[in-house]
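Objective 1b. Sequence-to-structure analysis of TniQ protein.
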Amino acid sequence: MATETRCLTLPVRPRPFAGEATVGFLMRVARDNGYDTLCRLGKTFGSVDGLCRALGLTTEERQILFGPYPSFWGPSVLSNGLMAADFNHSQLRWCPLCLGESAHLRGSWLLKISCVCNRHATWLQEKCPDCGSFQRLDKVNFEICGCGASLAEIRAARPVADSVYHLSQTVEASIIGNSALLGFPPLSLPEWLKLISYLGQFSETCRPRKPGKIANMHQLDTASAFLLQASYLLDSWPENFRALLAAIQCQAESEAKTKTSIRGTFGTLYHVLYTDLSAPCFQFLRDEFERFLHVHWPGVVNKRHRAFKPETVATHPRVTLKQAAKKAGIAPSTVRHFVRAELIAGNQTELPSGRKMRSVDEQSLAQIAVLAKECVTLGETAKQLVLPECRVRELISDGILKPLVSRMHGNAAAWLIPKQQVRALIFAGTGVTHSPPIINVRYILKYWHLREGEFITLVRALLERQLEPVGKSTESVPIGNICLDEQVARKWLVEKRYVGGASISVDEAAKRLGLKQQVVYDLVKLGLLATSQDDLPGRRVTQTSLEEFQATYISLAEFAVTLNRAPRWLLQTLSVQPVSGPMIDGSRQYFFRRVDLSI
């Protein structure tokens, strides 16, 4: 009763301003009534109710105050779902312009996240303009610093960016009811505070390890950094938020820590979106996050992701190889080979166990089906071309056939060769009638003992029309059944072998020299034409020995033609002795050394 009597004798009983900070009002009461600290005021009055009765405050006047009471009166019961932790209890923030207009503390200034004066669009201050000291909330004269400087003095008012100003305005408007930033759902004041405090911790270059623990929010620098970053992410929605998501994903890839799970890749941000900000009012954040995954997440989103909306899982564009194979109607191994050969875009992630997880875009399903439909296996190719499989492999090794899938691409068990390339080895005849003998390519492969590389040379000769197929021009014949004129084919093969450095028989050498066989055999016997013995029967003449003979010797008949003289007359007039001939060694023709004839 004594305390209440003393309370009733307060000489000065100021009235609160609308939206004034509760602690600011108490500071004015203490100052006007001669108390040097709020603690002394608290000791004088046993409760806040006793002080209000002493001041004669009505219920309406008490309700227009904003913020908690000092802690020495016990815990405060706050409206709007706010908690005492949402407010500053030690350091003062203020707007000099507002203090100059009316010397009372605005309740919104005590919010930890409050950094802007929404009346003047400037940043709040927390340090004396003269001595630079922080101003504490336990003092009673909030207009003057301890050094004597006026806190209402304006030195340098810093303007606020539009995005920060609009967000700050929205937060302050939510004190009296839910408010909405343009393009976002309306939120209550605690929801705005929670959104800013969590979202403001994330940037493209910095992400918190423990986003639930926020230190130094009572300091203006920390709070303003959160407000700035939150306003940046909400500005130009959703481009800046998507840039943040892309930066997190890119960093995971650059650090060679690509995760197979979305939770592992996006880490603490994922936890914030689906745990800390799990309330329905923040669904717009999760919606945009899941839309980003729809476009940029290379893995599969399936029913294991229970936190996602069902439509996010149902419409995700990437599927496993098994799912892709089932939808395309082919074997999973074929899809895997297409991915390995980079015929379709695919993603591969190695799990900690060493197992590899692969996925493809659902839009690739049509391409997969087309690729599979337009290809044949190695065995099917051999049947269509009427060739042994070993010969098909030769065509592949030489590049005439270029399989989409083969052992050259990841040791594939199956070979897939485009049908278009197979059709290129099906020929039509020339329509020209040929007399026997006629043989087909299969006969050549079986009985002609082609040497290494000669089959490929034969195929290229057919492709380049050096050899013309025999048959009707209206019929298409696979390369194995193509018919050729035997004499033309043999002549072509001998020429190819000769050009390639292969030896030829003495009879073939006679044809090339334009001499009779017996004459050439005499030359061999006399050692004028060098021969060798290889794996083929009989004496063989190499291209080198034939060229050396032609460069060293000349027949009388050939020399006579060059001089336009009769051979017999020329033989009688020449003073040069032949190296071989009927009168020399009994051979059938005369031969001279070219050097002896000076030619």
